[in-house]
Amino acid sequence: METADLTHHISRRFNEDLERVRSKVLSMGGFVEQQIQKAITALTEGDSALGESVALGDHQVNNMEVTIDEECSRILATRAPAAGDLRVIVAIIKTITDLERMGDEGEKIGYIASRLATMERPVDKYREIKHLGRIVTEMVHDSLDAFARMDAESALRIARQDRLVDEEYEAIQRQSITFMMEDPRAIRRALDVMWVVRSLERIGDHAKNISEYVIYMVYGKDVRHTSLDDVERELRREPAPEIESQGGAAS
Amino acid sequence: MRTAAQAWWFAAARLIVAVLIGLILGALLHSPWAGVACALAAYLAWQLIVLARVDWWLHHRSVSEPPETGGVWGRVISQIVRLHRRKRFHKERFVQLMRQLRLSTAALPNGVVILDAQREIVWFNRMAGRLLGLRPSVDLGLRIENLLREPQFTRYLAKGDFANPVVIRRSSPKESYLSLQLVPYGEGEQLLLATDVSRQMRLEAVRRDFVANASHELRSPLTVISGYLETLSHDPALDAELGSPVAEMRRQAQRMTAIIHDLLELSRLEETDERVGGEPLEMAALMALLRKDVLARPAHPQEVRVRIDSEAALVGKESEIHSALANLVDNAAKYTPPEGSVEMRWWVDAEGGHFAVSDTGIGIPPEHIPRLTERFYRVDPGRSRATGGSGLGLAIVKHVLQRHGAELEVQSTPGQGSTFTCHFPPERVRIADEALLNG
Asked: What local confidence, expressed as pLDDT, does residue A226 receive?
């Protein structure tokens, strides 16, 4: 299978540099994942110290992004990779941008969590946020897994999951509007909750982007702004991607 | 079966007989050499036929019986059969051993992952797949740190000290706490052992919550008791005979308050064992404060010295560092007679920052030193209760130091005194900024 070959190629033969950068991206991903999880916990448990520590930890994410970015530039300049390897580098550069933005959203949630912790918590204890949070963190986790495994199949599945997040977002929005109309005193908190939900939805979008980069990395197809059904049909029709010569690879 | 020599002689005899027959028949037809040639050709042809049969059998030996050739060929065939049988026997035994080995590691209740020198996955058992979310065959050849991305694990790998396991929290495939340990073996290969410790972690959390809640609940009634005792002891109408019992009750109530305070402090410290950040602390100011506290005690050693060999600041959480150092200094003062002396010292070298408290007190027998930081551990039960300690001071010190990546070292000679030294790592030391100092 070609996909396995690509993984094989990358892990075994392509230079150590690329593999190290990939590991760095994934460990950055692991850190961001934890930040998001902590931020959600801080909010749902009303733990202001935890929320603050998330907000303060964001500079580490930024540092990691800068380091990986520099390393990618160095590889591009010194090794001038082509075809599949070039796609990996391009995908890495895009992935870290999305990870960094996820970190920023996590930071936002952290801030809001530390502020909301001092306020009275709602009766449902942010149940809907917990639920959405679980979906989103799973998406982030799975997209990074797909990145590590070069698994385009899972990536496609994750990209589809984003629709679920959007639906959930809509539902919470409607619910919040109802709360605000019922009790105007709750508007302030409801707005904060909306910010958190918005951030989670954005994180889901970024996870979807990462999955799309995985598909791009493996098949050399740019699947952004394309309907996922079309993508799937195309991938099915053409199960053996040619790694050497994919036109428009770095578009 | 004939012996080897017999078989070969028989074969040779057969050849000679064949040649002789050829020679005689040839002689009768007046061309003896043609006869010999014919005989040799016939013999060769027969040998070739036998060889072809043997070859065919070797190819199809699993389905067909060896050819009945007898003679030398028979010997060769039986040798081959014997070798083959022996090989198959060994192979079967080996396969069985392998199967048993694999079955037993697969059935282990712990996750086992075999990694090569690049930390790429070579093999893992079923439990590892379940605990770590690894996919059989797909994940072989992937680096373990690419799939286990938890920052704690990344730090553990980067640190390279695999003497102790690391605990990570995983939310996928299900919410769990895992204890992971790397065991290096062979030439750079590593074994990753994974155990599910969710249950232990939950019990630990329950225990912590219990201590914290119990202490909290005890505090309020104790405040009421202390308050009434306070009023009572100042009451002029109090019976003179009751004076000293009430005073004792007040002292004990104070001690209980101190213990509860320390218990709460400890459970707060225990809540997270994550490293704390903190701000640069001026050691000179901090040590001056500690000295003042000692001198404020009703009975204190006559000499309390402060020695500052470095202007570097210590990076830590002020409240925690203060409470840890105060505990050490307090202990030193408590166990040192009034005519003795206590010295605090702060210095910085290549290994980091060091804070030491030396006293000329009663000292600690060596067998007690390893257990000093245990909760409520008493070197001399009667004595330390009399001095009013909570028995938790050094446990608090240990926890605070752990959270700052520091270590506690205790040296002591009974009768001469003790030295408690805190070794802080270099990253906890901030060399004083010249501009700040001058400005």
From this structure: 66
- Is the separation of the CB atoms in B168 and B149 below 8 Å? no
In a domain, B201, yes or no: no
Q: B interface mutation test: which of A1, A16, A25, A26 has the most B CBs within 10 A?
A: A26
Claim to verify: residue B253 and residue B170 sit in the same structural domain: no
Which ipTM value was assigned to this complex? 0.77
- Let me know if residue B140 belongs to a domain: yes
Residues 69-88 of A with CB under 8 A from B: none
CATH of the domain at A10: 1.20.58.220
Classify residue B186 by its DSSP letter: T
> For residue A245, is it within any domain?
no
User: CA-to-CA distance for B181 and B191, rounded, in angstroms?
Assistant: 8
pLDDT at A245: 38
* pLDDT tens-digit series, residues B78-92: 888 899 899 999 999
Last residue in a domain, options B39, B74, B103: B103
| Together in a domain, B292 and B262 | no
In a domain, A209, yes or no: yes
Range of the domain at B49: 4-103
- pLDDT tens digits along B314-352: 988 888 899 899 999 988 888 888 888 999 999 998 888
- Residue from the list A33, A37, A145 with its beta carbon closest to the beta carbon of B147: A145
The model's pTM is 0.67
Domain count, chain B: 4
Give the model confidence (pLDDT) of A112-156 as tens digits.
998 888 877 776 768 888 899 999 999 999 999 999 988 888 898
Per-residue pLDDT, averaged over B375-401, amounts to 78
Amino acid in position A110: G
CB contact under 8 A, A30 and B143: no
Place of tokens 């791009």: A216
DSSP string, A178-223: HHHHH-GGGHHHHHHHHHHHHHHHHHHHHHHHHHHHHHHHHH----
Picking from B120, B139, B154, the nearest residue to A30 by CB comes out as: B154
Whether A88 and A18 have beta carbons less than 8 Å apart is answered as yes
Range in A37-51, A193-207, A232-246 the model is least confident about: A232-246
A vs B, Cβ pairs < 8 A, gives 55
Q: What is the mean pLDDT of residues B423-433?
A: 82
- What b-and-e string marks burial along B373-383, b requiring 16 or more CB atoms within 10 Å of the CB? beeeeebeeee
As a whole number of angstroms, the distance between CA A74 and CA B437 comes to 41
β-bridge pairing B303-308 and B341-349: parallel
Residue B62: the pLDDT is 73
CB pair distance less than 8 Å for A19 and B143 = yes
User: Based on the domain organization, do B257 and B296 belong to the same domain?
Assistant: no
Owning domain of residue A140 = 2-237
Q: Which positions in chain A touch B146 (Cβ < 8 Å)?
A: 22-23, 26, 148
DSSP β-bridge partners for residue B419: B358, B411
Handedness of CA B69, B72, B75, B81 (dihedral sign): negative
- Name the token pair of A7: 């993984």
* A124 occurs within a structural domain: yes
Q: Looking at B219-340, which runs of residues are DSSP E strands? A: 279-281, 303-308, 313-316
Residues B52 and B94 in one domain: yes
Q: Same structural domain for residues B353 and B240?
A: no
The rounded distance, in Å, linking the Cα atoms of B251 and B234 is 14
Are residues B368 and B428 located together in one domain of the fold? Answer: yes
Q: What percent of chain B has pLDDT over 90?
A: 17
Same domain membership, residue B260 and residue B297: no
